[in-house]
Write a structure and sequence with these properties.
mainly beta, 3-stranded antiparallel sheet, 1 helix
């Protein structure tokens, strides 16, 4: 389940990323790596979400309190 493209301020936002492989065809999983998602807004700054272990991949959560502090507008993620 990918990161939601639209969400409402004050909601808890959750998504998951599966494990995968890198350019060297090596497994990239939550047992060996920490995954972070960086939300960026040119007008409002940044917010970092660190994934927790979920199966071999990661689960991400933006708490209701944190999402309430994100200003409305366009945010990008990496």
């Amino acid at each position: 389940m990918p990161i939601p493209s639209i969400f409402t301020s004050g909601d808890t936002i959750e998504w998951r990323d599966p494990s995968g492989t890198n350019l060297l065809n090596e497994t990239v999983s939550s047992g060996d790596y920490t995954a972070k998602c960086y939300l960026r807004s040119s007008a409002f700054g940044a917010h970092t979400v660190t994934g927790t272990n979920y199966a071999n991949g990661w689960e991400f959560e933006i708490s209701a309190a944190d999402s309430a502090e994100l200003e409305p507008g366009v945010w990008d993620f990496k």
